[in-house]
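Q: What would this chain look like folded?
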Amino acid sequence: MTQTILFDPLVPWPVLWAAVAVTLAALLLALWKRLPGWGLRALAALVLLAALSGPVHQSEDRAALDDIVIVAEDQTASQQLGDRPQQMAEARAELKAALETRPGTDVRWITVPDGAGDEGTRLMGAIAQALADEPRARVAGIIALSDGQVHDAEPPLDLPAPMHLLLSGREDDWDRRLIVKNAPGFGIIGEPVTLTLRIEDQGAAPSERGLAVLEVSVAGGAPQRFTLPVGVDFELPMVLQHGGRNVIRFSVPEEPGELTARNNSALVQINGVRDRLRVLLVSGEPHAGGRTWRNLLKSDSAVDLVHFTILRPPEKQDGVPVEELSLIAFPTRELFLEKIEDFDLIIFDRYKRRGILPAIYLDNVANYAMGGGAVLVAAGPDFASADSIYRSPLSLILPAEPSARVLEQAFRPAVTDLGRQHPVTSGLEGAGDWGRWLRQIDLRTPEGQVLMSGADERPLLVLNRVGEGRVALLASDHAWLWSRGYEGGGPQLELLRRLAHWMMKEPELEEEALWAETTGQRMRILRRTLAPQAGPVTVTNPDGSTVELSLRETAPGQWEARYEGPEQGLYRLQDGDQSAVVGLGPAAPREFEQTLATGDVLAPVLAPWRGGILRLEDGLPSLRNTRAGRPAAGRGWIGLTPREAYETLSVSQAPLLPGWLALLLAAFFITAGWLREGRR
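A: My prediction, written as structure tokens:
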């Protein structure tokens, strides 16, 4: 039972204090004048003021509430290193026993798992959630069992009681870490990309280890080894060999005695892109489609175009000297002999043999294609004539022979069954409703892949590989009708873009390809093939174990499967002669960026309540009761603040000075004072 005196004034407090001031002034005046009966009148005024203040006697029946202690256990990945699991188990058992012996204590045990994705240790978030479920006035303390590597300590949490950190790990721990400080997301194919790396020793590392071996593996290939100094930033130039995703793995061998090897490797994924597409366009004569080709290529700022056009055929005799037909001499020798390897794509648009380009130039173009270049021929009536470029050294690489027949009839281009599977023509918008073309060159004995057909299902678009290069033949010069919107037009821009990128060997347009798209620890394995059935894909995990996955067809020529990776690292995919590598998880897991136990991260959080940071290897500290504002930790002990919280069961109130008693006393003292004055 608790007894208290409360005041419930009958008038506002300012009015009551004003009455007190007036009473004191009158009392001082009576004393100065030596008036008789001033004491009795003062008592009367005091009784009236006391009555106005409304004194109340309150009795409460209270039930004491237990203090709440929150214990947060860090069970993230870094807590599994070394002997930390054993330390945590022993500390948990001893702390539980110590808290059970403390009278009037309820313990809330919370577990802090790994954060979603790569968030790291979210210790303070877990504590904040636990505090939200408890009355703050009952919380006597917070104890965290952790290595101190917390990733949500900013901004500091407003705590209702002292917080203490009991550190796992050992003071003589050391660890070696590989840091990729700078890695671009994109790089230009064939040009150096500079990455900044650092090998760093943390903690009580052996002083004699001044050098380390760095292994670099590109796309899962054999690693290259470099000996580098420890603790120094160094720049490593890399040259991307192909477009699309390039997976690079850096690793440092594990040293005896280091805490973990999980941070000794890093995965970097860089997308290879082409800087500019260098195109040589050779037009045999001006025509409507020639301007379309030029406008199409010049509309892309990433294309460097050199256009070679024959404006005046040699057979035209008008008396104009040849040296006066151009402002400058066109550098044919330089383009077709000396600098032909600088071009990514050569296009022959309605070109025929006229003696302007010697056979040795065309032979050099054929060698260029065989050596890895790309040649596209847009055929017109010239291709079916006796002067066709097929009757030149280019016949070695062209995928079809003209029959000398030109079909002057309207037809609607269509995608073949093979074309529906090929990435160049699959999924083109509006297939079947495209506008008609009006001329086609008849081809025979096509080699390679026929992706589109024209009049009477004759080959219209033929692709083929020659040596290391690629060649395409479009058996019509009327593709420009689509760009003019004739009968609704068609996807000329998209078709030619895909065709050029296929010839540039872009990975996303390879007809035989295997790759994966990743989201967290999940991968979507994609297989594209022209075969009627895709075989199973073998997945090799980072630990060397393998899993065989069956694929399902999702679109013509495209198959896929989904796989959940059991751990972070480099995975290898294999299906016949197709292979790919993919990295799951972050380049450097956040949980293993810093592995040494430290109290520096949480020190600002503990400072307001003067909490303690103690190591578990020194033994579990004892528990003491401390008052708020006093040091909450010391050598070998941590403090909890008793909250003395209670629950009110019942309340009763009674006035100390009833109105009738106040009036009676006031009247008595006033009457006595009046009699005193009258007697005198």
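The radius of gyration is 44 Å.
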